[in-house]
């Protein structure tokens, strides 16, 4: 409920983002297995420890991976990557699915609280808070979140966080 109201109390620690990614994929594993979806990590060799709220960033990553699983057809792959960006100042996470994608006219609204696309309302469970919560967490860390999607071609969500801690 605190995330839904956009109140974020960070408890920053230094942690390994690759370990967090692997734990998140393990947590999302049963849902993916139930749909015969492969979860494929891709971590750059030069990934570095980051300072941030490990639990909250894990929640943001889990929300994005969970959505990718939810919207992917059975038998497909969800790819989750970590790499350095901005000259090593930020970690860039990417979560790609092979689902239906998000129509261009809806993309500007997907991070709004309670927003659910027209097709999503009819066919998918949820109340429209997961992406809003992920955005709140990422922005509380001084990061950015965005997406790239072509209808019928899947969707990739990206977010960055500074490696040296929350600055928001």
Distance between the termini: 20 Å
Helix content percent band:
25-40%
* Estimated radius of gyration: 15 Å
Question: Into which percentage range does the β-strand content fall?
Answer: 25-35%
Number of strands: 7
Largest sheet: 5 strands, mixed
SSE run: EHEEHEEHHHEE
The stretches of 5 or more residues where confidence is low (pLDDT under 50) are 1-5
Strand order of the largest sheet: 2-4-5-7-6
> What overall geometry do the principal axes of the alpha carbons give?
globular
Secondary-structure class: alpha+beta
Average pLDDT reading: 87
* Helical segment count: 5
Could you characterize the architecture of this molecule?
The strands form two sheets. A five-stranded mixed beta sheet has the order 2-4-5-7-6, covered by helices on one side. Helix 1 (17-34) packs parallel to helix 2. It is globular. Helix content is 34%, strand content 26%. The protein is an alpha+beta fold and 168 residues long. The longest helix is centred in the first third of the chain and has 18 residues, at 17-34.
